[in-house]
Amino acid sequence: MTPTSCLPGRGWYPCAEQSIAALYALHPDPEGAAADIVRSFAAAAFPTPAESENGASNVNAAFLSRFLFVLGEVGLRPLVHVEGLARAVRRARVDRDRKATESAEAAAAKGDDNSEEAALAAALGQGSVSEDLHLDNSRELAETELLAFKAAKGVGKGIVAAYAPVIVALCGHPAVAEGHALLRGAALAALSRLMAIDGVFCEEHLALIFTRLRRESDRGTRAALMVALGDLAFRFPNAVEPWTQHLYGVREWGNSLHDSDAGVRQHAVTVLAHLVLNDMMKVKGHIAEMARCLEDPDPRVASVARLLFHELSRKHGNPIYNLLPDLLSRLSGDDQLTPDVFQKIMTRLLGFIDKDRQTESLADKFTNRFAEAALASTPKPARDVAFCLSQLSLSDKAFKKFMDGWKMYEPALYDKEVYAALNGVVAKAKKSYGGKSKSADGADGAKQQVEEFEQKMNAAHVERYESWRTQKRAEGHVFDDDYEERLKAAEAQALAEAEAAAKEAEEEAHPLGPLDGETATAENPEAEQAEEAEEADEEDEEEEEEEEEENDENDPEPSPAPAKKTSKRAAPKAKKATEAVKEEAPTRSSRRALRANR
Cα(506)–Cα(591) distance, rounded to whole angstroms? Predict the structure, then answer.
């Protein structure tokens, strides 16, 4: 327990903690010995100007960290010491009362006159109330004398309180906040221990603790601060209650439940679960942040959150039932939660509802929420409500109320996911609705009623969906399945054109119908020869016309037009081509129909 101990690094601190605990357990005057230790560490941490060459700038960070740790432990140990003494006094009083009761019973057995009064007084515990009050007053007085932050009449200021302003200044100093993590952690630990001593001091510096928690970069220090805040909430619940929303991490301060480190999140959820289950913190809507931890990536965090909600469900009245509507609103409005994670969380929470009365009440509340969810700009609120409704096992009475609330959710049936979820509710009702009816006619009537309602909901879904699509298309929205519809329309048009082409080909293939010479020539060699013959005839006619024009220019008088010559080589070719075309007419028509079908 010397400032210049040879133990390196962080190994010195657990040894110092155990040494101070042994001092308070074994030393006859632990307060005086602890005060001497604090003075020796203060002298090493803050050397005098004569001892240091550069004055205040020559403060050793290691010595200062050790001094802050010892100061915090010495400030906290008297609380533990006084609590131990109080428990010892209570145990001694219980033993005394037990012995007094036994003596009174023995005296009554002997027939003593005062034995009955003594036995009655011992049974009623007379004097124990006044003794408890006296013990509490003595404990508070002892704490005031040992840990006085403010000098009062007959009470001096404690040595720990004398250094409290130094600790506050160090925790708020930028150089310490941005300096070594060990020094920063020791200063914050000392501040949290001093806050656990005095309620007024705690209220004054809660803002500083949350500020340091928000800006702290070391994960170990963040976890230690979260544990310290849990201790403060347990000791001074009224002082920490206004900071509940920061403790849950709803706002920018105290975001330990959303910390990037899994260890810090585990410490945070463990501390909050301890406070909630011991009724030291009210279960408010902020518990939605705890519900998010049910699907935390780290299995340790998720297991602690599941244990919390499991224990809550076992409490009287099942608080989860009262929290579910608010949990639905908060989780549904959280944009950071994916639909898959939301559904997993709500499925686990709704699994704790096992009473028909609670199920009916929740189904009625969820159905009424459709009136607002259907008017939202996005279908997400209606989808979330419909999913939660589909996870409930509705009784006949609850399903009857669901059918009666048709006007609530009918406007939301345009969405396919909402329709699928509500259709799941109807599918469950098909198996159980009317099952308790004593007569067969009643069961058949109930089944027919469910089927008619299913048809009604299906028709409303189709109508609402088409109306919604038409409205969105008018606003310029393009749906993913519009391409498929256009593709089907194009295929239908192509099929119609193919049928028309096939019909035309059949007409052309008729023996009296027109023939297409180009197709025949392109696919038949004989047709090609006929085409060549026609071209040759055309060339001969052009040559004859040119010769006639030359003769007309040379002759002064016009001569009678010569008779048109017929090419000798073209005549047989043309005749042969005509016969080939006639023979190939059926083949051409069938090929033309085949191309049209393609």
Answer: 11
